[in-house]
Every structure is written in C-alpha cells, then in structure tokens.
Design goal:
Elements lengths: L1 H20 L3 H12 L7 H15 L6 E7 L2 H18 L2 E7 L1 H14 L6 E5 L3 H7 L5 H6 L31 E13 H4 L2 H11 L5 E2 L2 H11 L3 E2 L2 E2 L11 H8 L2 H5 L18 E2 L5 E3 L11 H17 L9 H4 L10 E6 L3 H4 L15 E4 L16 E7 L6 H14 L5 H8 L5 H4 L2 H6 L6 H6 L16 H17 L4 H22 L15 H10 L18 E2 L1 H10 L1
Parallel strand pairs: 1-2, 1-3
Antiparallel strand pairs: 3-12, 4-10, 4-11, 4-12, 5-13, 6-7, 8-9
C-alpha cells in the first residue's frame, strides 16, 4: 500500500514537473493552430519565430508565478482566460491575470506607489496617468528599460512605432512610460436608417432649414435631439439623446474623458492642449501645473466648461429617457442597442460588441448594423486644431517597486498579448485597436461593414483628434475623484453649472497646492500662479497665440451644421 502511494506520488510530481519541462514549441504550435491561424499580420513561419523568441527569453523564469491586473472589459477577459494560459503553456511562466473594476486598478496602483509593496508585477492602467507616472518617477521608464535592464527580455519584433497610441504614453521628456494594450474612443452614435428615411429627412429640412445628417456642431446635435424626441418610429416613441447622471464615480469619467474639450475648453494641441488642457489645468513653459481656475489662467470654470455642463444637463432633461438621470456608465451603455435612441454624442466604442449582436433591434437580418459611428460634433467654443474627443488607452505599466526578475517575466507577458502574432485575433475579439498593422489587415476590411464605421474611423485622419488625458494632470488618482462629486452636485440640482465648476477648480488647486508644498515632484511639480481676472488672462493668452481661457460668447446657439455620413467616409478614404 505504501509502495503504491509512493509510486503514485512520484508519478504525480514527474507529471507536474513535465508541465514546465515540455513548455516550448509544441505548445506554441498547438496555440497557433487552435487560436491564431491566419488571423495575424505575420505568416506562420514568422509566428513560430516570434514564439521561439518568447520561449528562449523566458527560460530563466520558468516556474515563476506572476500576478498582473487590469479592468474588466472584453479584451482583458480574452487575455485573462485565453492568452494567459497560452503564455504559461508556451513559456513555463505561470500568469494570474486578475480582472477588477477600473477604479480598483487605480486604487491598487496608488497603494503600491505609497507603500512600496509589490502588489502586482504589472498593471494595465489608463494612459491618463502618464503625467502622474512621469512626475512621481515610480514607474519604470520603458525607453530606458528596453535599452538597458530589460534589453534581454525585449522582443526585437515589438515595433513600438506600430502602436497607434505611442504619443499618449510618451512624457514631455520624450520617454515611453507605458505600452498600449487596448484603445477605444467615445464617438457619435446615430441611427443611420432613421437619418436616411425620406420622411424624416423632409420633415427635418422643413423645420430647421438644413439637411438631416451627422452633426458637425452642438447646435445641430441639439436640433436633431429635439426633432426625434417624442417622434413615433415603428410604432413607438423614440428619444433624441441618451446619457447618464447618477452621482457615482463613473460620472467623473463622463467629463474627464474630454467632454470639456468637445465644447471648446482649453487650448489647441494634439494629442492635448497646451498650455491649458481639456481638464482646464494650465502648465508653464517647464510643464509645471500653475492653476485650474480662470483666476490663475486655467479653464476648469471658464465659459467653455460651464457651457459644456449646461448643455449636458439641458439635453438629458429634455431629450433623454427619464431613467437616464439615475443611471451609471455601465447601466446606460447598452441602452442605444435597444432601439429607441436616435443619437448619442458620447458613446464608448468598447460597447461595439454589444451593439452588433444578432437579433438586436439595431441589427439587420444580414448582420449589418442599422446604426453608425461618426466623429463627435464640437461646441461653440471649439477651434480648429483642438482635440475633439477621448480615447481610452489601457497600457502596461511596470512599477520600480517590482523586483527585476518579476518585472522581466511580466514584461514578457505584456509583449506576448500585444505581439504581432496575436494582436489581430485579440482585436477581433475586443475591437480595441492598438497597432496600425492590425488596422490595415484584410480581415478588418472584410469585417468593416458589420462594425458601423468603427474601422473606417480608426483608419481615418480624424482619429488623431481623439486622445486620453494628457501630461498636465500631475496626480490623476487624487484629482479624478474630485470630478464626479462636483458634477454630481450639478446633475442633482444642488449647484448651478458655474457653482459646480468653481468648486471643482478650487478643489483641484488645493491638491496642486499640497503637491507644491510637499515638493514630492521636484522641478516638474505644481507651482501656482498669481491670481488675475479672466479678462487679463484671456488677453495674455491671445497675445501669446493661445486661446484659454476664452471669454463668454453671448450667442452660444450658432447655426446648426451637418454633413452626409457617406460623403464623410469617402473623404477619409481619399486621405
């Protein structure tokens, strides 16, 4: 009996050991056969060569167990459930890829920054933290890492220039601090079928004097919202707008994710306005934040920002379903797919997969959508050369508090899930593009008609006007949490739009003041400017060729302007 037990135990140990002993090309070939096939920009020989590089580079870390974390979206679910296992099978490095809420990711990262404890070996956190990572210098400088300490584990075929979000994760010092893993934008959503209905077109033209089409400005968006709200289509009353308003952390993203820039807040500049960004935070010539309120040359409570909040509140009250006021981001996201919303200015393309499911009221019998995505319209304060919307760029970040060997193993995994071998397949699953080569792949040309303009937008020059939070924000975790509370007060009616934004900019400046006093960010940390009037700061901006803070425009309801969606797409393909 004892002998039998020992034999069985020995066999079990040998079997467990074999998992790492046989990690290698057989496992890689099985993965390529089952999961990748021709869904790659690399041919089979190049795929195998890339897998062989991972196998060889991972040998010093075989048997190691690492932990990484990301927010829960379809792309990361695919990585966690499918790619993490494949990587473990191929390299012998066991990966636990945790999926948690976006706010929880930031909280874990903040805890690791404050304590120095290695909670995770790598984070996929938004590039919105680029200003934080650059100023605190607690994240590894990837440019330096790839050239030096991490050179032996940096894939020669990584091709950083192929990443379309590289500019989002590059700091003012010219160095890369994060590697993009997924990207999605907030775009304008509209019912293409309703907009092309002859009666709707005729009725709209008769009432407003111009053609029903994709709105170029907020005035046209407002006219279209009014036109469709209460209109009967297919036997039911529909709405001209959709949004959400519950006082919840997700309400903050609704506004930090570039709503103010769409109105015309901040300065010109791609990917972000300088010296004033879309949060209304101003920096000096050395990238030191000097203020948020107009009294210090910022724009968080300027006329453009207040206008943006007033329009948000007005449209939700007049043109959205009553339930929208009490919804969060997650609750409101799928609503347009239910078939009663004519348009939505602020639609995250992360919901695309939810909008194209067979059998939905917004999908035709042949699988093509009844809706389309298009560039968002801009507000009356917006000027050419400004950003026009937001892209979320979830990006790999290696903290300096992570031991070198664990950081190297995690870096290998980060490169595996963003590699040219797997990226086309991953992008088909999650529709969150990060590589130009993937966007150019024939499979997306073939699939484009069923994705409602998503592929066309990402292939277009318009894409460049959509970008994440920039480097003016010196401490994203501390500042971002202020937004939902301030906007929530405006949404609930507790404060006017002006009062809410006055409160927000004052609270942001308290954080800037504390950072300045502590000196923790050195010579790139905040240095608050002296206070002046809006008129003085505007004159100073204009004299320097800048915009913000702008003076109030008396007539904020300009003439509505639209464009034909089909003509818009044609203009992109010509470029």
């Amino acid at each position: 009996m004892r002998r039998h037990f020992l034999t069985t135990t020995t066999a079990l140990v040998l079997c467990l050991g074999a998992g790492h002993a046989f990690a290698g090309m057989d496992e890689a070939k099985a993965f390529l056969d089952a999961e990748i096939g021709d869904m790659s920009v690399l041919d089979r020989a190049a795929q195998e060569a890339e897998m062989q590089w991972f196998i060889d580079a991972a040998k010093p870390f075989a048997g190691m167990e690492i932990k990484v974390v990301s927010e829960t979206i379809t792309t990361h679910e695919y990585e966690s459930k499918t790619l993490a296992k494949a990587f473990s099978d191929i390299t012998g490095i066991k990966v636990t890829h945790d999926l948690i809420g976006e706010g929880d990711v930031v909280e874990k990262l903040q805890t690791q920054m404050q304590s120095g404890e290695n909670i995770y070996d790598a984070y996929i956190n938004d590039s919105d933290l680029i200003g934080t990572h650059w100023r605190y210098q607690q994240a590894r400088n990837l440019t330096d890492w790839m050239a030096n300490a991490g050179k032996d584990v940096t894939n020669p075929n990584l091709d950083i220039d192929d990443f379309i979000g590289k500019s989002f994760t590059t700091a003012p010092d010219g160095n890369l601090y994060q590697l993009p893993d997924q990207q999605f934008a907030n775009l304008y959503f509209f019912r293409y079928d309703w907009f092309n209905d002859e009666k709707n077109k005729a009725d709209f033209k008769a009432k407003y004097g111009y053609d029903l089409g994709v709105p170029v400005n907020w005035s046209a968006y407002e006219d279209i919202a009014e036109f469709f709200t209460g209109r009967e289509i297919d036997g039911k009353k529909v709405y001209g707008h959709m949004d959400y308003g519950k006082k919840d952390p997700s309400l903050g993203w609704r506004f930090t994710d570039a709503w103010l820039s769409m109105a015309g807040n901040g300065d010109r500049g791609i990917p972000n306005g300088k010296p004033v960004d879309e949060w209304g935070i101003k920096v000096d010539e050395n990238d030191r934040p000097v203020g948020s309120c107009v009294a210090r040359g910022g724009d968080t409570n300027g006329p453009a920002a207040v206008y943006s909040i007033e329009k948000y509140l007005e449209w939700m009250k007049k043109y959205a379903p009553a339930a929208a006021q009490g919804m969060t981001f997650g609750e409101s996201g799928p609503v347009p797919s239910q078939g009663e919303i004519a348009q939505q200015m602020f639609t995250y393309t992360a919901f695309t997969a939810d909008f194209v499911k067979e059998g939905l009221p917004v999908v035709n019998a042949d699988g093509t959508p009844k809706w389309r995505f298009a560039p968002s319209p801009h507000g009356v304060y917006w000027k050419e050369g400004m950003k026009l919307g937001y892209q979320d760029a979830g990006s790999w970040t290696l903290m300096k508090s992570t031991p070198d060997d664990r950081a190297k193993a995690a870096w290998l995994y980060a490169q595996f899930v963003t590699s040219k071998t797997v990226d086309v397949k991953k992008s088909h699953v999650g529709l969150t593009f990060i590589r130009q080569s993937t966007l150019d792949h024939q499979s997306f040309t073939d699939r484009a008609p069923k994705l409602g303009g998503l592929v066309e937008f990402y292939r277009s020059p318009a894409r460049l006007q959509w970008s994440p939070t920039g480097t003016n924000v010196p401490d994203y975790p501390k500042l971002a949490q202020l937004w939902w509370q301030a906007i929530g007060d405006a949404s609930s009616g507790a404060k006017t739009a002006q009062e809410a934004m006055d409160s927000l900019c004052a609270e942001q400046e308290k954080v800037l003041e504390r950072l300045e006093r502590a000196g923790v960010q050195g010579d790139i940390g905040p240095k608050l400017a002296e206070e002046k009037t809006l008129e003085e700061w505007n004159a100073d901006a204009v004299a320097k060729g800048n915009l913000a803070p702008q003076l109030k425009i008396e007539n904020e309801k300009e003439q509505g302007q639209t464009v034909s969606y089909d003509e818009l797409v044609k203009s992109w393909t010509k470029n």
